[in-house]
Design brief:
Length: 192
């Protein structure tokens, strides 16, 4: 039985529960672990909510030992706040910090977060660098194939993420403009 390894973390199962806003709360993650998930992700959590200790955000970080290993997914567009949030997560019982650079939802992208970072590779790199610098945990990055069909850049984005210190990447094979529709581009995933 081959194990999946992300930095120093070895997963007993290669099945991973993706972060899903509104779904991947603690009870759901526990069910998925019970049915064989080797790793579960929290819903995406705002770096600002963590840094400013917003009650709703803090409640989303609730975890228990039975669900470990578990990853916390952060989002934000400010490298300094993302670094501060990473330092806070490092003191929590989490095993991975994942950075969301793939969310296509307009309320996220209009603030420069999520998939909007696919258009600003320098800011994306600064965010990854800040998170890696402020944690001892493995850092992973989720992103898309690109912004639009004429701007497919997942391969260069993945290389940048690796160079900035990411331990692993997850590629959603659709562009921002496709959101959750259309066909996934398996060729760009293979290229990455």
């Amino acid at each position: 039985k081959k194990q999946l390894q992300i930095k120093s973390l070895c997963l007993e199962s290669p099945l991973i529960l993706a972060p899903l806003a509104g779904y991947t709360d603690l009870p759901f993650r526990l069910l998925c672990r019970e049915f064989g998930a080797g790793l579960c992700y929290t819903e995406m959590i705002s770096c600002h909510g963590l840094v400013y200790q917003k009650e709703k955000t803090i409640s989303m970080t609730r975890t228990i030992p039975e669900e470990r290993p578990v990853a916390l997914q952060l989002f934000g567009a400010d490298p300094d706040k993302m670094g501060q949030a990473a330092a806070l997560v490092s003191d929590m019982p989490y095993d991975i910090i994942d950075i969301n650079m793939g969310c296509p939802v307009r309320k996220v992208t209009k603030k420069g977060s999520g998939a909007a970072l696919m258009k600003d590779i320098n800011k994306a790199q600064a965010i990854i660098t800040a998170v890696v610098k402020n944690t001892h945990l493995p850092v992973t990055v989720k992103f898309r194939s690109g912004w639009k069909s004429d701007c497919i850049n997942a391969d260069t984005f993945a290389q940048m993420a690796q160079d900035a210190g990411a331990s692993a990447v997850t590629v959603h094979g659709r562009t921002w403009s496709q959101a959750f529709g259309g066909k996934a581009d398996w060729k760009i995933i293979a290229k990455v």
